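Q: Here's a chain of 529 amino acids. Please give me its 3D structure as tokens.
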Amino acid sequence: MTASASSVMQPRDQNGLVLNPWFIAITVALTTFMEVLDISIANVSLRHISGDLSAGQDESTWVLTSYLVANAIVLPISGWLSSLMGRRRFYMLCVALFTGSSLLCGLAPNLVMLILFRTLQGIGGGGLQPCSQAILADTFPPAKRGMAFAVYGITTVLAPAIGPTIGGWITDTFTWRWIFLINVPVGILSLYLTARLVFDPPHFAEQRMALLARGFKIDYIGFGLLSLGFGCLQVVLDKGQQADWFDSNFIITMTLVSGFALLLLPFWELRQRDPMVDIRLLQQRNFLISNILIFMLGFILFGSTVLLPMFVQTLMGYSATDAGMVLSPGGLTVLCFMPLIGMMVNRVDARHMITFGILSNALALYLMSHLDLQADYWSMATLRIIQGIGLGFLFIPINTAAFADMPMVKSSNASAIINLSRNLGGSFGISLMQTWLTQGSQRHQSALVAHVDVFSAQTRETLQSLTQAFSAQGYSLGDATLKAQATLYAYVQQQASLLSFLDNFRQLAYLFIAFIPLVYLMKRSVKHH
């Protein structure tokens, strides 16, 4: 135990020279930031991709789905692959695959090849997040782990917030191909620094040698169940709204396959000596609750990150770049507050910090539910700043609590599970927000239309006023009447959409608050000085 602790406090290279842990933190944060950025950066470029490659808009969405499906399959088994190959070797392989496939994506001659290369990119990217977090957990002692997770938090919380802005700017300024090509120099630099600075700690190397010595059995059935379960689930979440959910036989089939595989997976894995996913780790109370909370964090973070840009683009006429700028102040707030929160986490009970983070987010989201179409830029940016402060108070304490009682030899497996929980939360958040938005708009439109009829004096006055306005512009009486009716209907649709957006912000706020009692089921955090 002492040796392990020493190795954590003083990471060393193969020659025994002491390495600066902050250099290691920056090294693993580089590519992880690019990988998380790639989840959202391509969203705003789909129209350009489909146009340039002569593909339909629906077909081009597979550029996103293929990446997410590959990511979802590799992410939970990254701990197992690290144990088999060695964490450093596996991490460098992921960086190399991610970098090489990014280059190929930027050079793709057609949509089919782009989807293939995006799948390879998702495979490489799937191992980066959990490996980075596991490396940080083993590099820093418990007293400094909060600061380490602050660096990691900057990559995973800031990247989704600024991804659409960067993606839109690159696409408008250069071409969509550069959203992939910018990964190449960063990946090469990360490979060089990883080779120089990152090494498996002694306890991890000893565990791997012991596993190999007794015979490392490959869990093929577990891998098959996991691939089918999470792969099909990601397809359902990404394509469900587009395919009208369970009115589609394809979505029904994918759901049944995913449900069957994921139900069998824990029963199978608990019987394996070398499971693909170490589900037994969820028997630890803090780790289990941390996974539920990080799922919720992913749900709210990605859900609200989708809602606010859609709100200002569809209802207020913002461009994609301007919509991204609404999110940017919140991202910069995260950047500023993460180090401060990293220092606080060793002095303040993590449960109180998480509760403060939940309340901050809930307040911001509740205030967003009172926005109207006259709201100015800074009104919305300020609410995003409040939310950014709350996100910092959630991410670092949740991750610190998750690893507090975790044996160091299990850090890779634990990191794989908690990153899977956050990514799944994000996928559910994006998918359900879009569905709730569509259904809410339809519900509100039906309610509003019931009050717009020819027997209503207010409706007749509004139509008469609009007709006169269009007649004054030179339209004939018949054309002016038709245009007045179309304008009134568009106004009803706009108001229905507005009410649906506000409902979603309010629901997210209430959902956040509902998780507060769960926080206090966690064990009180141990303070380190």
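Q: Can you summarize the key feature?
A: Residues 153 and 375 are 30 Å apart (CA to CA).
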